[in-house]
Design brief:
Largest sheet: 7 strands, mixed
Strand content: 15-25%
CATH architecture of the largest domain: 3-Layer(aba) Sandwich
CATH superfamily of the largest domain: Type I PLP-dependent aspartate aminotransferase-like (Major domain)
Strand order of the largest sheet: 1-12-11-6-5-2-4
Helix content: 25-40%
Number of strands: 20
Number of helices: 14
Distance between the termini: 26 Å
Radius of gyration: 22 Å
Shape: globular
Length: 414
């Protein structure tokens, strides 16, 4: 069935095509100058010291965990409501993913649930910034400091998102001692530092900034950046003596980004702020249109406690954006309080409108039975069953958005 309104559509224009033509005609299409320049421009935009580009965001996460020291037998805390690759990578390293349930309010990892899952085998936390909304960085950093854990931020869909004014990949927060007290310098001033040890982003076709496939890792740790560059290229480094050639000093991977992908990324980065502004405008229009369907913004508790008052019954919960959080709306996700998400998605598709669920409830996926990591996470399961991602991209028109909302209204009989 042809779709009259797709779920997503990358904003590819003439400039990207011309840039690709320039790279192809140069004959240099593997990893080279374009990748190096893209990394420098990303580092400047984000505000971090080092950016290393890869063939995918998953590749970036893989090498981030390796350089952070994750080994067989370790435990890594991951969100229950996310894309499965967040849990897959620890398994590929012989570690065990430990699921922490979700917040209804943000769809992000619940810090209280994180605290409950920590054992003496826990080595890292991989929080995800769901759909472009930063997770609670202050709370996660405090937990990590208390237990001497690494924080590897999976911000795959959140390029350009901000936490208290700083872009993800460069956001900072108060640091804490193991007893929970804030770290202080000799003069008694609270010490602040990076909220994440490493942050990763994806440039997949569904993301705000796309290179088709691709991703990157950001860190202020120069040694980790060197290691990731080496590991992405078969474990090699370039030495000049006795001749200029690669030497393979460890076992590595082929996780390189190509110059043609990087060239597209550079064009996309130049207009990223405009793309984010357009997405935020689309989100604002959706929220305004959905007011007719009795939504309520989530403010910090479960839908079951919020959907009923003595006057109204609320059918839809619209996205949350609290103080200090800057949402880039890689997806516009609503919560259908009473409706079955599968039924609604199928009906929307029959009308030519593509929608999807927010994320997977990863603990419910079959691979967990194979590796013995199943865990009941009721909030993540409900979010999987009841969330609906509406078409959201830079070029969607208000007329199309009205069609989406009116069709939803008919299906829900509101």
């Amino acid at each position: 069935m042809s779709l009259k309104i797709p779920l997503h559509s990358p904003w590819i224009e003439k400039d990207e095509v011309l840039k690709l033509k320039e790279v192809w005609e140069s004959g240099n299409i593997s990893t080279g100058w374009q990748v190096e320049q893209f990394e420098r421009e990303l580092a400047e935009y984000i505000g971090t010291k080092h950016v290393v580009c890869f063939s995918s965001g998953t590749a970036a996460l893989h090498l981030a965990l390796i350089v952070a020291g994750i080994e067989p037998g370790d435990e890594v805390i991951v969100p229950a409501f996310t894309f499965p690759s967040t849990a897959h990578i620890p398994v590929l390293l012989g570690a065990k993913p430990i699921y922490a349930d979700t917040e209804y309010v943000t769809y992000n990892i619940n810090p209280k649930e994180v605290e409950k899952t920590i054992t003496d085998k826990t080595k890292a936390i991989i929080p995800v910034s769901a759909f472009g909304l930063p997770y609670d960085m202050e709370a996660i950093r405090a937990i990590a400091d208390k237990h001497s854990l690494k924080v590897i931020g999976d911000n795959a869909g959140a390029i350009g998102s901000k936490y208290w004014g700083a872009r993800l990949g460069a956001a900072d927060c108060d640091l804490h001692e193991q007893d929970g007290k804030p770290k202080q310098d000799k003069e008694g001033h609270i010490i602040r530092g990076k909220a994440e040890d490493i942050s990763i982003f994806s440039f997949h076709a569904t993301k705000t900034l796309t290179t088709g496939e691709g991703g990157c890792a950001c860190t202020d740790n120069a040694d980790w950046a060197v290691q990731m560059r080496m590991l992405r290229d078969h474990g090699s480094i370039v030495r000049s003596e006795p001749e200029h050639k690669k030497r393979f000093v460890t076992v590595g991977f082929n996780y390189r980004m190509s110059d043609d992908h990087a060239a597209v990324g550079r064009v996309q980065l130049a207009k990223l702020e405009e793309m984010i502004a357009r997405r935020r405008s689309v989100a604002s229009i959706y929220t305004e249109l959905l007011e007719t369907l009795n939504p309520i913004k989530m403010v910090g508790t479960s839908p079951e406690r919020m959907i009923k008052t003595h006057e109204k019954t609320y059918n839809i919960l619209t996205p949350f954006e609290g103080d200090g959080y800057f949402h880039t709306f890689q997806r516009y996700v609503i919560y259908l309080t009473y409706a079955d998400g599968v039924i609604v998605r199928n009906e929307m598709r029959k009308q030519g409108i593509e929608t999807t669920f927010g994320y997977y409830c990863v603990p419910d996926e079959p691979f967990n039975e194979q590796i013995g990591t199943y865990k009941r996470c009721p909030t993540a399961r409900k979010c999987f069953q009841h969330t609906l991602a509406l078409p959201c991209y830079h070029t969607i028109t208000k007329d199309q958005q009205e069609t989406v909302v009116n069709t939803l209204k008919e299906i829900l009989r509101l």
